[in-house]
Design a protein that fits this description.
The structure holds two protein chains of two kinds.
Chain A (H helix, E strand, L loop, with lengths): L1 H19 L6 E3 L2 E3 L13 E11 L6 E13 L4 E14 L5 E4 L3 E11 L4 E10 L15 E11 L13 E12 L3 E5 L6 E5 L2 E11 L1 H8 L11 E14 L9 E11 L3 E10 L6 E12 H4 L23
Antiparallel strand pairs in A: 1-2, 3-4, 3-17, 4-5, 5-6, 5-7, 7-8, 8-9, 9-10, 10-13, 11-12, 13-14, 14-15, 15-16, 16-17
Chain B lengths: L1 H16 L8 E5 L5 E2 L5 E6 L9 E5 L12 E3 L2 E8 L6 E10 L5 E10 L3
Parallel strand pairs in B: 2-8
Antiparallel strand pairs in B: 1-3, 3-6, 4-7, 5-6, 7-8
The chains are: A mainly beta, B mainly beta.
């Protein structure tokens, strides 16, 4: 029975998992540094490691289950503009009246290409495809036997090009991601081990979309005005992330609606790593109950190993032979 | 869990041992970022978080008309390779923009800009 319960929540969670993976890029675009956000992938390919990302929240089931996820994500540039990432998540689910379950979610990989980095406009765009490989995780925690392929598009925009009359707004930046999650099986058939009842559940296609609004105190200090704040404060980036997933086809009879969370928090960005901590606030009852939490330690491999692991595998990062200034 | 603890500890050790390598970001400047000065400065000095490659690190200072008002060549301080400075021509009251681009010793390029004001706004 418990497995059937997990099967029921899996379509809703798979889109979430697809979205929370591979948040990984040491992303400088002109004067702007986009930190690696915890739920929305940032708009750059890079060499980075999230180790670990830990989240704890109550699911939208009745009664709610308490889910703890610990994930690891490794991103590597193959060329200057093309990168791959691989991630895995260990999940523990505890629900009153049921035995707890633990295990790995399906392995995920992503392939990403840097479409644009416009320094003067602090604008970056990225296209990619992420794949959740069905059957590589534990069914006991809801990992599906089918794969899910999600083409994605990411964008990031800093507001450093605003006029000086609103210079206090220059440290603002936004990032966004949109994807379309396509399961490789349109439905899943299950047999209840207790009653022998056969159930067929549709696996909807999901539109997955997320974004972040961030205010960079490092940008404020280096590009707008140095207020003489303590060094620790000058490394903070207050942020609000939001992520949603909406079933858009093959949804008949599933009872699945739009789910999502809004995550206010803060990122401390240092020279070699960053630490992020956010609250996880579900947008409706189907998305969860109460306020959860997510935290991440994120390492910049291009700074830790600048001449080895931090370089693209094919063709080292190009560096200018002459300094030039863009207008 | 023990494995994760070990990995985390190892990572922090790596961060410590490799602290000389990273993107060079602006730590502070003179004139300060966004400052308003009564007297015109004679030079701009920028302090970075990392050592710089002297040949590939530079500064431009421009007035509100976009004309260069610096003396043409930024120099890394020979006694402190994380400090870059450039001389200025005599500056009348106005708003000036400092545009910098540097290459850190580990080959990462970073850039930025800021303004300062001379005289009353």
């Amino acid at each position: 029975m418990y497995r059937l319960f997990l099967r029921a929540i899996a379509p809703a969670t798979l889109a979430t998992l697809a979205f929370t993976s591979h948040a990984s890029a040491h992303c400088f675009v002109g004067s702007r540094f986009f930190p690696a956000t915890l739920n929305t992938d940032d708009p750059c390919v890079a060499d980075e490691l999230s180790l670990p990302t830990v989240s704890r929240f109550k699911t939208g089931d009745i009664p709610s289950a308490t889910q703890t996820d610990i994930s690891v994500d490794f991103a590597k540039r193959i060329t200057e503009n093309f990168g791959v990432s691989i991630s895995t998540t260990w999940t523990h689910v505890a629900q009153r009246g049921n035995p707890s379950a633990s295990g790995f979610q399906n392995l995920e990989t992503a392939f990403q290409y840097q479409l644009l980095k416009d320094s003067s406009r602090e604008l970056a765009m990225l296209a990619g495809v992420s794949v959740e490989w069905g059957g590589t995780g534990a069914a006991g925690v809801g990992a599906e036997r089918f794969s899910v392929i999600t083409p994605t598009f990411n964008v990031g925009k800093g507001f450093g090009d605003l006029p000086d009359t609103v210079r206090w707004a220059k440290p603002f930046a936004i990032t966004g991601q949109i994807g379309y999650a396509i399961p490789t099986r349109s439905s899943t058939t299950d047999v209840d081990p207790d009653t022998g009842e056969i159930t067929v559940a549709n696996n909807p296609n999901f539109l997955v979309y997320s974004g972040s609004l961030q205010y960079s105190l490092p940008y404020l200090k280096s590009n707008v005005t140095d207020l003489g704040l303590p060094d620790f404060i000058n490394h903070l980036i207050p942020i609000v992330e939001a992520q949603f997933q909406t079933p858009v086809s093959n949804n008949f009879g599933t009872g699945i609606g739009t789910t999502g969370t809004i995550n206010p928090g803060v990122i401390w960005a240092g020279q070699h790593f960053q630490v992020g901590l956010e609250a996880v606030v579900p947008v409706n009852r189907d998305s969860g109950r109460g306020v959860g939490v997510i935290g991440q330690l994120h390492l910049y491999l291009d700074d830790l190993f600048p001449k080895t692991l931090g370089q693209p595998l094919i063709g080292a990062a190009s560096n200018p032979s002459k300094i030039s200034f863009g207008k | 869990m023990r494995c994760i603890n070990l990995l985390t500890a190892s990572t922090f050790l790596l961060c410590g041992t490799l602290a000389a390598h990273a993107h060079a970001t602006l730590d502070r400047s003179d004139p300060a970022v966004g400052s308003e000065l009564r007297a015109a400065p004679h030079q701009v000095t920028l302090w970075y978080t990392q050592k710089l490659e002297p040949a590939l690190s530079s500064i431009e200072v421009r007035n509100s008309a976009g004309e260069r008002v610096d003396q043409g060549r930024a120099r890394v301080d020979p006694s402190n390779h994380s400090v870059l400075r450039i001389g200025l021509k005599p500056l009348p009251p106005g708003t000036y923009k400092v545009i910098w681009r540097v290459l850190s010793a580990d080959t990462h390029t970073t850039q930025g800009s800021f303004t300062f004001q001379v005289g009353d706004r």
